[in-house]
Amino acid sequence: MTNNKSRGNADEQTPLINGESGSSAHTGNHIQRQPRNGVFVFFFDNKHTPGNDSSSIAIRSAAYTWHVTKVTLLSNYVNFLLVMVPIGIAAGALGWNSTAVFTINFFAIIPLAAVLSFATEEISIKLGETLGGLLNATFGNAVELIVSIVALKDGQIEVVQSSMLGSILSNLLLVMGMCFFFGGLVHRGRNGAGTEQAFSGAVAQTTCSLMTLSSASLVIPAALYAVLSQNEDEDKGKSILILSRGTAIILLLLYVLYLVFQLRTHSNLFDTEAQEAAEDAEGDENAEEASMGPVAAAIVLVVVTVLVALCAEYLVGSIDDIVEKANISKAFIGLILIPIVGNAAEHVTAVVVALRDKMDLAMGVAIGSSIQIALGVTPFLVIVGWIIGQPMSLRFETFETVAFAVSVLVVTYTVQDGKSNYLEGAMLLGLYIIIAVAFYATPSNAFDKTALLLGAP
């Protein structure tokens, strides 16, 4: 979704540029017009690149390679930050200052996330609705997954858990709050006769029920740990890991069931008449043809995934020094900063479609991504930790668990009527800021999960 909109923006600009060239040609001569049009087509037309129809294999291959590169670069406005990628990798490899390494790689991952989403969308166009939806569900949070696996391998369990919680809260509170707030302001109606934006209440209720279930999956391990701590049970870490791994398997099965429910048996609930009408009016061209072939998109996907892994390696490696020098808790880095990296492009898309009064699409981005993290990515990381010998569990700190449970409760009450306004958006944003300030005020050594989990005194 993000990339269709991004490609749409590029397409809307390209004809304007070409149109200006054409109109100026009426006042000039033919010799001046041709080179200008050719330059714009070569660099800015993401539908055609000169040389693609050449009889020479070498020219055709070079032209198609440039076409794929050009389409990828024009896919999103944030791609100008791609210059940070080689700088960030060099900074990490050459051992620059930890603050510089963290900051540069932080900004490098933002456009890589957008390109990753774009390549996924390109492949989805060729696969059809069901398989495409499954692919989007799988790769929708690929950046968070890669960063978390790197951090988990490095033993940064606190960062992994905080980033998972942060991704969920940023979608539920920040993104949804911005959608409700800005969309509500634009579509507020007249003074004294205000209007509200509407979305599918059935979908919102179903997804909020799943979020409540995921909240329970965190509350139960936290409660069990508290009980075992009171009884001074020395094997409490082992008990928590057994519970977490069993719960993770159940949550993954429920996530698969949710995908079947969403994409196959009850897909009608997730495709409202308004959404179908919008897709028929605006998405026909995108549905019929992609900007690049599936093989090229797959190559882009692989290359970008490798680059994300490299940048994530250096970003995670600099966290300890950042915490020590700036006295910022790992919980704040994971909860607030890392989710911004992976979700920036999706956040912008959700707000844009909310401004256009397409609230079902906006809700799909916000709640859908939260479901993926809560029922898919987080349990998967528990299993990965089990495999590689890291004590990753579903026992979050009590403070984090309470913040998550309260957020789910507030969101459920907010969306259950299927309507939204700017006041509800302001409430969600306010709660997100309160939680962010709370974690920022938390001392860097307040959470020491590893010692507690292993039963250390």
From TrEMBL:
Superkingdom of origin: Eukaryota
Gene Ontology terms: biological process: intracellular calcium ion homeostasis
GO molecular function: calcium:proton antiporter activity
Positions of the Sodium/calcium exchanger membrane region domain: 98-263, 298-440
A Pfam family per the record: Na_Ca_ex
Transmembrane portions of the chain: 74-94, 101-119, 131-152, 164-183, 203-228, 240-261, 295-319, 331-355, 361-387, 399-416, 422-441
Chain segments carrying region Disordered: 1-29
Location, primary (coarse class): membrane
Protein topology in the membrane: Multi-pass membrane protein
Subcellular location: Endomembrane system; Vacuole membrane
Keywords (A to Z) from UniProt: Antiport, Calcium, Calcium transport, Ion transport, Membrane, Transmembrane, Transmembrane helix, Transport, Vacuole
GO CC annotations, alphabetized: endomembrane system; fungal-type vacuole membrane
Tagged with keyword Transport: yes
InterPro entries according to UniProt: CaH_exchang (IPR004713), CAX-like (IPR004798), NaCa_Exmemb (IPR004837), NCX_ion-bd_dom_sf (IPR044880)
Protein function: Has a role in promoting intracellular calcium ion sequestration via the exchange of calcium ions for hydrogen ions across the vacuolar membrane. Involved also in manganese ion homeostasis via its uptake into the vacuole.
Family named by the database record: Belongs to the Ca(2+):cation antiporter (CaCA) (TC 2.A.19) family.
Protein known as: Vacuolar calcium ion transporter
Organism of provenance: Conoideocrella luteorostrata
